[in-house]
Amino acid sequence: MRLGLLGGTFNPIHFGHLRAAEEIREKIRLDRITFIPSALPPHKKVEPPITVADRLEMVRRAVAGNPFFEVSEIEIRRPGLSYTVETLRHFQRSAGAETELFFIVGMDAFLEINTWESYKELFQLSHFVVLERPGTPHALEKFLADNISPDYRPDNEKRRYLHHELRAVFFQAVTSLDISSTKIRDLVKEGCSIRYLVPRVVEEYIINKGLYK
Ligand code: ATP
Ligand code: MG
After folding, report:
1. Distance 108 CA to ligand 2 centre (A)
2. Which of the residues 12, 23, 47, 54 has an alpha carbon 20 to 30 A from that of 35?
3. Ligand 2 centroid vs 186 CA: distance in angstroms?
4. Which tens digit of pLDDT belongs to each residue from 125-164?
5. Residue of the nearest CA to atom 8 in ligand 1?
């Protein structure tokens, strides 16, 4: 089993997340992708009145039609801060030895991974799939050497960096959709349309509950 994991605040989930997940599933040949909304992101504040339940429900509705996508409440149920290292330990334990984990992360987030809790252990627990994101320069090779290990070696096409002890790091371009949750929240606040940036069910949820106004 090849299991993709996509963590995020999902405040709210949008087509940038969904399309990236779909393309990665095909390109890296993953069997499933689990979306993992974070409870209390160490790096950001989630402003009230948006609740964890709202973010979770929007992810649920957004992925409902895709048989390869599912949602995990692991970070939401765990008390305290959401640390990726604990999440990966959890999935490694629960998924079993035959399952390979692929943690999917945007380039912007990946280039800050050296600030994450126990970040070196992450590379023992899971492969990484780093998404190219509009506006972020490619500095992956040097970043890996400087921060994780000098022993990562690119394969021929530089699509994948391999290591004799640690898990692989994949570098994967996906269709550039210049959409962010910040942009969605700003548009709603300004009274503008978010149609075609988020799934219809997410748009309706935001409008019906009066979120982000
Ligand atoms: P915010 O604007 O609040 O930071 P966001 O849109 O970046 O939100 P997150 O929940 O922080 O959304 O993102 C979760 C993961 O999805 C991160 O790894 C992020 O890099 C990635 N991601 C977010 N938007 C896109 C996009 N448009 N294309 C590809 N990846 C994305
Ligand atoms: Mg972000």
Report:
1. 8
2. 47
3. 14
4. 999 999 976 555 567 888 999 999 999 998 877 688 999 9
5. 181
Residue 8 near ligand 1, beta carbon < 6 Å: yes
d(CA 207, CA 213): 9
Q: Which atom of ligand 1 is least distant from the CA of 174?
A: 29
Instruction: Tell me how far the alpha carbon of residue 106 lies from the centroid of ligand 2, in angstroms.
Output: 8
Distance, in Å, from the CA atom of 53 to the CA atom of 51, rounded to the nearest integer, reads 5
Confidence (pTM): 0.93
Lowest mean pLDDT among 70-74, 105-109, 135-139: 135-139
Q: Where are the domains of the chain?
A: 2-179
Task: Answer yes or no: is the C-beta of 133 below 6 A from any ligand 1 atom.
Answer: yes
Instruction: Write the single-letter amino acid at 74.
Output: I
**Across 119-125, average pLDDT:** 96
∠ CA(80), CA(112), CA(109), 5° rounding?
A: 80
Q: Does 134 sit behind a cis peptide bond, omega within 30 degrees of 0 on the bond before it?
A: no
Question: Which ligand number lies closest to the CA of residue 47?
Answer: 1
Looking at the CA of 187, name the nearest ligand: 1
CATH number of 2-179: 3.40.50.620
Atom of ligand 1 nearest to the CA of 182: 2
pLDDT band at 190 (very low <50, low <70, confident <90, very high): very high
Contacts of 94 (CB under 8 A, 6+ apart): none
- CA distances for 193 relative to 13, 26, 143, angstroms: 16, 31, 38
- Rounded CA-CA distance 8/41 in Å is 8
